[in-house]
């Protein structure tokens, strides 16, 4: 692919099966990690990404190629062997993969590289979305997104180049499958980030932060709780979503 297209614009989209059940790992990487098969799978994914980056550099494409690495969900928590938890880890954020509302299920890093164009080591703490990939690619190609429909994403280039400091996403709607679980509002005038949860998964055990009893959290049915009024969090003060606000005691 690179040899055929290195002298003209190209788009390479690589959708890795890693790190996803059934955690298929080649023999070369089995046993590499101290974190079981899940860790082995991460190790192999890291190697695969490294091989792609090496080719980009070897072919002299590093300085005119935008690379964007991200995931479509947070770490999978329920992977286990006996009593040992062998899945992912989402830091301070509650929940994980399969949870359309909690931060641990939807908040993932986007890692971007474009030497000579984007400054190295920059951390941008603004909300973006995988929906932004399409308009960003169109922008890079010098095109325009369709005008006959609503495009939910926005080009990332102004934000990455620091021509603007704020994300254009004021509201984000967080679905689990086809079911709306939560809505986020970035209140621009104050910088506060509000999040309302209409539906949350029922954790098993209750305090575990995951659905070990089911293997993965469901999006609907008897495995979720509906909230009316919704659970409300101020993510700018409570990113771990530990303390839902009360309309009776908390000033909003």
Automatic annotation (TrEMBL):
Ranges annotated as spanning the membrane:
none
Does the keyword field hold Ligase? no
Question: What SUPFAM superfamilies does the database record attribute to this sequence?
Answer: Alkaline phosphatase-like
Task: Give the protein's cofactors.
Answer: Ca(2+)
Query: Which UniProt key words apply to this protein?
Result: Calcium, Hydrolase, Metal-binding, Signal
- Every Sulfatase N-terminal domain range: 5-142
Signal peptide range in chain numbering: 1-26
Which GO molecular function terms does the record list? arylsulfatase activity; metal ion binding
GO annotations of cellular component type:
endoplasmic reticulum
Protein family membership = Belongs to the sulfatase family.
Protein name per Swiss-Prot or TrEMBL: ARSD Arylsulfatase
Q: Which gene codes for it?
A: Arsd_1
């Amino acid at each position: 692919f690179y040899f055929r297209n290195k002298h003209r614009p190209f788009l390479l989209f690589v959708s890795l099966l890693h790190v996803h059940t059934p955690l298929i790992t080649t023999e070369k990487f089995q046993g590499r990690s101290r974190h079981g098969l899940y860790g082995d799978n991460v190790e192999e994914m890291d190697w695969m990404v490294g091989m792609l980056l090496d080719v980009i550099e070897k072919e002299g494409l590093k300085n005119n190629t935008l690379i964007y690495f991200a995931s479509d969900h947070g770490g999978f928590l329920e992977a286990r062997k006996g009593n040992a938890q062998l899945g992912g880890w989402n830091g301070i954020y509650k929940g994980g993969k399969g949870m359309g509302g909690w931060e641990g299920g939807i908040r993932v890093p986007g890692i971007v590289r474009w030497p000579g164009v984007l400054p190295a080591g920059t951390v941008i703490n603004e909300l973006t979305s995988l929906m932004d990939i399409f308009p960003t690619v169109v922008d890079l190609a010098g095109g325009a997104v369709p005008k006959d429909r609503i495009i939910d994403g926005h080009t990332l280039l102004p934000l990455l180049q620091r021509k603007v400091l704020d994300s254009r996403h004021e509201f984000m709607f967080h679905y689990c499958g086809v079911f709306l679980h939560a809505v986020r509002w970035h209140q621009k005038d104050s910088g506060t980030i509000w999040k309302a949860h209409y539906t949350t998964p029922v954790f098993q055990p209750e305090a575990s932060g995951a659905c070990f009893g089911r293997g993965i959290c469901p999006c609907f049915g008897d495995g979720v709780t509906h909230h009316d009024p919704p659970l409300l969090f101020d993510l700018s003060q409570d990113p771990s979503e530990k303390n839902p606000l009360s309309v009776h005691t908390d000033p909003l």
